[in-house]
Amino acid sequence: MTSTEATTSIDTVTLGATDPAAAERFYADAFGLGPLLRVRASQEPTTGFRGYTLSLTTSQPADVDVLVDAALAAGATSLKPAARSLWGYGGAVQAPDGAIWTIASSKKKDTGPATGRVDDVVLLLGVADVVASKRFYVERGFAVGKSFGRMYVEFASAPGAVKLALYRRRALAKNAGVSPEGTGSHRIAIGGAGSFTDPDGFAWEAGE
To answer: How many structural domains compose the chain?
Structure first.
């Protein structure tokens, strides 16, 4: 890993929860992401859409179903039932702590038995201005992996790290099946690339 990769990767995502012990149990039962995901106590007020989603990508639809079913069994609420679309197969759930998760595969047909394995974890930030936010992160050393004008940007990431992507807030909410309106705390802290706050109020913390 180069020094640039080390300073521009997401090592951990920390979610704020009113009941952190319950949230930790949920994530252990539903997704088993280990040290990539942390939970800590938060009483910060928040209503509606928090401005981000976390996405789990898998190799085939059967794995999407396994993860969605595990999340629902652990206490999540279905926002969008898993289904085929133009881009693949996926669905969305809301965890008991309020975080929204999308689970998807770019494939529409299974090629083998379901494993429930997560290939990538992606943090999608809903932003007001994709171009401005892209520039903000590029100036901090992030390398662009994919870019689709004013709609979507995905940054390159180190192996095993959480990927960072930017999406227009309204479009991100629509993709998750919720209203884009929301106020208060994001209830998320992003760890690994230094301490700063981005143009949309997302807080970063220095990695360990």
So the answer is: 1
Range of the domain at 104: 3-121+180-205
Q: What is residue 27's predicted lDDT score, i.e. its pLDDT?
A: 98
Burial of 47 (0-12, 13-18, 19+ CB in 10 A): exposed
Distances (CA, A) of 20 to 17, 30, 87, 101: 5, 15, 35, 17
Provide the token pair at 127.
């932003």
- Whether residue 133 is contained in a domain is answered as no
Cα–chain center distance at 125: 8
Task: State both tokens at 12.
Answer: 């951990």
Residue 150 located in a structural domain: no
Sign of CA dihedral 163, 168, 174, 179: positive
Model confidence pLDDT, tens digit, residues 107-131 = 999 999 999 999 999 999 999 999 9
Per 3-state DSSP, the chain is made up of helix, strand and coil in percentages (nearest 5) of 25, 40, 40
User: Tens digits of per-residue pLDDT, 83-98?
Assistant: 999 889 999 999 999 9
